[in-house]
Every structure is written in structure tokens, then in C-alpha cells.
DNA sequence: CGAAAGGCGTACCGTACGTTACGGTTCGGC
DNA sequence: GCCGAACCGTAACGTACGGTACGCCTTTCG
């Protein structure tokens, strides 16, 4: 299990200019993948390499900062857990599913995951940990309270929130992420995402919904 | 969707020596990741770099051949579809799930997927396609007949074998592969794999099993 | 206004690595 | 025994790129 406190408030310590530079680096990362050069970043950001090195130390530092920067931008709003009936629970789950599918199919997510996966082998930096922390684990952190609340309200039945979450994760993501990462063109329109989110949610409810009545499959 | 005919009978066109070299490259790939050098491969395989270039063209050619070589080794035996009752179907599914989990958690699979993902960005070679073809798509090809047979026998109910397969895929894999690729240490003992395989199978049956009787969840 | 700081652009250095070239050795065929 | 082919080991070449140094400009502050 990963620990790693990624609570560094990057948004504070970074000046406007630095953020702009990181945005440039991010765009370049999406376009070029891991084989982006410091010179390219400098040119794209209209800054000197010397500045890059002064600010971020070295290439790994720049990559690290870039990934963290993107991560800090994705901090989402926690869900409000007020009226809780089957309808609102279903809606929440569908929302989560749809959001997640949109994230993992986005260009920047794909690019970031690719880079992080590539770096995961040689333990030079913690890119994998950062991505994981702001992706899969952040999702779990936000979703679990909803699941727990659903259980409290008698709408869901499960032993462990973690395993319930992982099942939901699997039902939503299926083979999408690995296929995208490996370069397969998966058709993911707004419509299919919506359909997949509904399907995954219904399947999840079929598996973990309280058996108080027949649930539409 | 990927097409790509990967039916090149590599095992024929490769001499013993060449296979040995590729095995060395493969081992090195597992240890070093994508940053393996031609010199390292040559040294490990006790061959000259000139030979490497004569045989495989260039570095990408060597990587390609290595991945294909590993892929050709994994050609599995098709399932025999004889007596088909719920018990044997369940057993088959559990077997598939367990095998798949073992594969994706193996060192070589992780290494190969990492390299393929890394290369997927810059469309220089088709490593991603190859890995996908011999991983996820090969699994579908082998599993779908089983699902169809299950439906024929009245044990399963589904519209489309593809979507049924993808659900099974998701239930089995969940977050395991992406976590492993990103460097997370997922505890995957023989026991947990067995448990996960059983759980995934039961969940799949709960979703797609014919409603002739109550199924244990 | 002058000086110092921050930053841009560019030239430069060192190294790692892909690729090529070459001398030496083994081995099958005549 | 001799020849050529295949191959090993290693040296050498070229380049790309990470990292550094320096000249010049702009802004800021005394």
C-alpha cells in the first residue's frame, strides 16, 4: 500500500509564471510523451533552461512538479450527503462512474499515466505513487463515504467498503484504461460514457443493493 | 479497434541461438525496464552488437522481436467444451480468472506492459498492439466460446458476448493491473488470487447467470 | 540615476548510447 | 589443410540531450 503524503500545497508556493511554465510542460507532455526535452519545454514556455533548472532542480524535478501541478488542479468538490434514497444514490454512483470514465479517457490523464508507468520501473521518482494517489485512491476516498452512507440508509449491503469500491471500480473501468494506455482507440463518446456509467451502476446495485425488493438489472 | 495479424510463426523463423538472445533481452527487460542498452543485451547474451543489428535491424526491432517472442510462448491450450453444467462452467470461469490474475501480476507481464505503454505514445512501433493482442484480446477470444456455450446451455443470459466478457474482465482485474503498472505493491498470494477468482466468478454469475434458481452471492 | 536581481536566449560541455567498423576466432564444406 | 561465412569482443563515431555558463535586457529598489 502506498502512503506518501501529497498534501504539499503546490498552488501556494508556485508563482503565476511557474504555473504557466508547468502548463506548457504539461501540454508538451501530452503531445510528446516522456521524450520531451528540457530545451523543448524551455522554448515552449519561453523561458531559459537555466530558469528551469533553478526552479525545478533537474529533469525529474520538472516532471514531478508537472504531475503534481496537474494533480492539484483536479482537486474536486466532496459530495454532499444529504437526502439519501435509492434515486439519489444511483445518481451519485452514475456521476462518479461517468466522471471517472471522462478522466481516464482524457488526453492528459493518458499522457500522465503513460509517463508514470514508464517511470515506475526505475524507482527514481514517485510519479506512479502521485498519479495513483490522485487517481484511483482519491476516487476511493470520495466514493467510500457515499457507499457507507448507502449502507447506513439500508440501501447497500457489504462487508468491506474497500472491496465494494474495488468492484465498482472494475465494473466502471473494465478494460478501458489499459486499452487506452496501450494505444487502442476506444470509442468513448459522451453517449457511450453515459450508458456505461448507468450499466456499471446498475450492475453494482444488483450485486450490493439491499435485497428489499427487485432491482432492475 | 485493433486489427493487426500477429500470426507470424516466430517460433519457426528463429534459430535456437536467436531465441536464447531474445530470452536474455527479455530477462534484461524485466530487470532494467525500457532503459536497457544494446551493449547490455549483447553482454548478457554473449553475442556481439553487430549480430544484434544484423538480426533485428535496430533497437526497436529488437524490442519488437522480444515482445513477440514472449507472446509466442504464451499461446495457451483452448478450453475443451464438453460436459457443460453450472459446476464446470463455474470452474472454467474461476480458472480463467485465476490464470489472468497470475499473468498480469507476473514480473514479465508487468515489464512488457510498462514498455508497451511507454512506447504507445510515439507511434514508432506496435508494441501496445502486440501486447493487447496477446493479452486482453487473446483472453476474450478464448473466453467468449465458453460464455456462448454457457448461454446455449441455458446457464447464462446476455445480449452480447463482448460486453459480458468486458464485465467479467472488470470484475476480475478491478484496479490490480493499473496499480501494479504504477508501481503499487499489491499483495497477490496464491490464496488471494484464488479468492478473487471465486468472488469475481460468483459476481459474474449473479449478474449474467440464468434466473432459474437462487445463486449464492 | 545606478546597481543588483531575475530572467531570456544561446552557446557550450560531458556523457550516454545507438550504430558502425574491424580484427580475431570458430566451423562447415571442399 | 584451406576458404569463406558467421560470429564474438571491442573500439570508434555521431548525435541527442541533460546540465552549466555567460551576455544581455528588463524591472525594481535605494
Quick rundown:
2 copies of one chain form a homodimer. Chain A is mostly helical and 217 residues long.
Structure description:
The structure is a homodimer of 217-residue chains. By secondary structure, chain A is mainly alpha-helical. Chain A contains 12 helices and no strands. In chain A, α6 (86-104) packs across α12 (190-208) and α7 packs across α8. Chain A is elongated and about 65 Å long. Chain A binds chain B through residues 1-2, 32-35, 111, 113-114, 116-118, 120-123, 128-129, 131-132, 136, 166-167, 169-175, 177-179, 181-185, 203, 206-207, 217, and chain B through 1-2, 32-35, 111, 113-114, 116-118, 120-123, 128-129, 131-132, 136, 166-167, 169-175, 177-179, 181-185, 203, 206-207, 217. The structure holds a DNA duplex (30 and 30 nucleotides).
Sheet with most strands of chain A = none
Overall spatial form of chain A: elongated
Task: Show unreliable segments of chain A.
Answer: 1-11
**Largest interface between protein chains, with number of residues from each side:** A-B, 42 and 42 residues
How do the SSEs of chain A run, as a string of H and E? HHHHHHHHHHHH
**What's the β-strand tally of chain A?**
0
Overall mean confidence score, pLDDT of chain A: 89
- Oligomer designation: homodimer
Task: Name the descriptors.
homodimer, DNA-binding, disordered N terminus, mainly alpha, 217 residues
Amino acid at each position: 500500500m502506498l502512503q506518501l503524503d501529497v498534501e504539499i500545497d503546490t498552488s501556494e508556493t508556485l508563482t503565476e509564471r511557474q504555473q504557466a511554465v508547468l502548463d506548457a510542460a504539461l501540454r508538451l507532455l501530452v503531445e510528446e510523451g516522456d521524450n520531451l526535452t528540457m530545451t523543448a519545454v524551455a522554448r515552449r514556455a519561453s523561458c531559459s533552461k537555466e530558469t528551469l533548472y533553478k526552479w525545478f532542480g533537474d529533469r525529474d524535478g520538472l516532471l514531478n512538479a508537472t504531475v503534481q501541478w496537474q494533480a492539484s488542479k483536479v482537486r474536486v468538490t466532496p459530495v454532499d450527503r444529504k437526502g439519501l434514497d435509492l434515486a439519489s444514490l444511483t445518481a451519485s454512483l452514475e456521476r462518479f462512474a461517468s466522471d471517472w470514465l471522462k478522466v481516464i479517457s482524457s488526453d492528459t490523464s493518458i499522457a500522465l499515466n503513460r509517463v508514470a508507468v514508464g517511470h515506475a520501473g526505475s524507482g527514481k521518482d514517485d510519479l506512479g505513487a502521485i498519479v495513483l494517489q490522485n487517481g484511483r485512491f482519491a476516487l476511493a476516498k470520495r466514493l467510500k463515504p457515499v457507499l457507507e452512507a448507502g449502507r447506513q440508509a439500508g440501501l447497500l449491503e457489504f462487508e468491506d467498503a474497500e472491496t465494494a469500491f474495488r468492484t465498482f471500480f472494475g465494473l466502471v473501468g473494465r478494460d478501458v484504461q489499459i486499452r487506452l494506455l496501450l494505444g487502442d482507440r476506444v470509442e468513448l463518446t459522451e453517449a457511450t460514457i453515459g450508458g456505461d456509467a448507468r450499466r456499471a451502476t446498475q450492475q453494482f446495485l444488483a450485486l450490493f443493493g439491499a435485497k428489499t425488493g427487485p432491482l432492475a438489472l
